[in-house]
Amino acid sequence: MIRSVVFDVGETLIDETRIFARWADRLGVPQLAFFGLMGAVLAEGRQLTDAFRLVKPDFEIDAETAAWLAEEPESLRENFGSEDLYPDVRPALAALREMGLGVVIAGNQPLQAASALEQMRLPVDAIHVSEAWGTAKPDPAFFVHVLEAAGRAPEEILYVGDRVDNDVIPAKEAGMRAALLRRGMLGYLHSGRPEAERADVVLDSLEELPSWIAEQR
Q1: Model pLDDT for residues 97-115, shown as the tens digit of each residue
Q2: What is the pTM of this model?
Q3: Residue 8 included in any domain
Q4: Which of 38, 78, 81, 146 is 20 to 30 A distant from 19 in Cα terms?
Q5: Where are the beta strands (DSSP E) in 35-115?
Q6: Same-domain status, 162 and 190
């Protein structure tokens, strides 16, 4: 029986469209072209930062974000705000809480993302980010922290994310159940891969999650 649900952040709870649009503007490339480059490198199994280096060959993420912060300290830059929350998130989280389930957020994010999520006052029990834990997905150590945060046996935890490599496979290897969410570039791309069959369920929206969990009980 599922007793706790743990959520990834990017493209699970947060729509990253505006973030990457701002990156395109900063790099001086049309947004549609930049989105196309990101999709192309991801389809080839490459790192997302390869798309940045196709536009700017000497691109280094840490140096660029530091420069951006110095130039625009008051803007969101590479961060997100409440406007970026997918519309199905609050209703789904609230429904899970009403079902008596534990609800936790845990994703590969910097410290400032935890603060941004806390300010949204989401109906969750806890919010955790990889920088605070000192380990990131798909490292098994990240999912050890997930187990501790959820406070349940592995088989009682459902991890929800948009990637098979970072979410589904390592969650299953940790003994948890896993849901693959079909949204965002990787969500749609990964849902068509053979490894997607390892997910316990593939969702098109978080609105589907409460009823699916109810059917498992």
Answers
A1: 999 999 999 999 999 999 9
A2: 0.95
A3: yes
A4: 146
A5: 102-107
A6: yes
